[in-house]
Design a protein that fits this description.
Layout (H helix, E strand, L loop, with lengths): L3 H12 L3 H8 L3 H8 L9 H14 L4 H9 L23 H23 L11 H4 L9 E3 L11 E7 L3 E7 L2 E8 L3 E7 L2 E6 L5 E5 L2 E2 L11 E5 L27
Parallel strand pairs: 1-5
Antiparallel strand pairs: 2-5, 2-7, 3-4, 3-6, 6-9, 7-8
């Protein structure tokens, strides 16, 4: 088999699937499926979509994506995933005892520095999300951001951020691609990029808060169709919360020294 596209096409024909059927099931446009089968990955919306589309298509056909990725992609065919690989050489046998001693001393110095640093009371660390700034939400713990590893930050289009203050079922589709489906945990934030549009389905919209390109959206539970929201580059501004005014931080008074 010469390429991953030819392999997927042969599997589809072997199992009797039509492209239109697969497109309906995966929410991927038919022309994108044809592009994958013809090894024209450059016709997909962005490089970030290439791995997502191929993986979804392979899993639909019952093919182990990791195996075909190793067979075709890792050998230089198809797409190449952008990875930062750091290789650490194993220590050479028969190393100098002096090097070992110097390493231990350096380790003790670093540990001592961090312990001393932790004792300084003037250093405080705030949660990434301040409940006093973003609204009256019952946040008790720090929000943990979760970013899908295969999505780089986009310089254009839309960047959707969803924050949960309680557990909620959630589905996010961006540009026709299933980006997330499952439970978003309490005090968790997730970021999703898209070029044109999002479709968001929520189990408990009252415990979720959203941002598009850094601008806060109106509370989801106030919308007419609160459990399903469609955003795109043309209409998302109508969902922004124009009445929201962040609370100003209190001014710090300078201590005067009496002479």
């Amino acid at each position: 088999m010469k390429s991953i596209g030819i392999y997927l096409r042969s599997q589809r024909r072997l199992k009797g699937f039509r492209i239109s059927k697969i497109a309906d099931e995966l929410k991927i446009k038919p022309e994108y499926i044809k592009a994958m089968e013809n090894d024209r990955l450059d016709l997909l919306p962005t490089k970030a979509h290439q791995r997502v589309f191929l993986k979804s298509y392979a899993e639909f056909l019952g093919v182990d994506f990791e195996k075909i990725k190793g067979k075709f992609i890792d050998k230089g065919e198809g797409i190449k995933e952008k990875q930062d690989i750091y290789e650490v050489e194993p220590p050479k046998a028969g190393g100098s005892l002096l090097h070992l001693f110097l390493g231990l001393v350096l380790g003790f110095v670093i540990v001592g520095f961090f312990l001393k640093f932790a004792e300084l009371e003037e250093f405080t660390f705030e949660s990434e999300i301040n409940p006093e700034v973003y609204g009256p939400f019952p946040v008790e713990e720090e929000i943990t951001p979760v970013v899908p590893p295969f999505f780089p930050e986009t310089e254009d289009g839309m960047l959707l951020r969803l924050e949960a203050f309680e557990n909620s079922w959630l589905t996010v589709v961006g540009d026709g691609v299933n980006l997330f489906k499952g439970i978003i945990g309490k005090n968790t934030a997730m970021d999703f990029p898209a070029k044109n549009d999002f479709v968001i389905q929520m189990g408990r919209p009252e415990v979720l808060r959203g941002f598009v390109n850094g601008q806060i959206l109106k509370p989801f539970h106030l919308n007419e169709s609160s459990k399903r929201l469609e955003l795109n580059t043309k209409n998302y501004k109508s969902f922004l919360d124009s009445t929201y005014i962040p609370k100003a931080e209190p001014e710090q008074k300078e201590d005067r020294v009496e002479e």
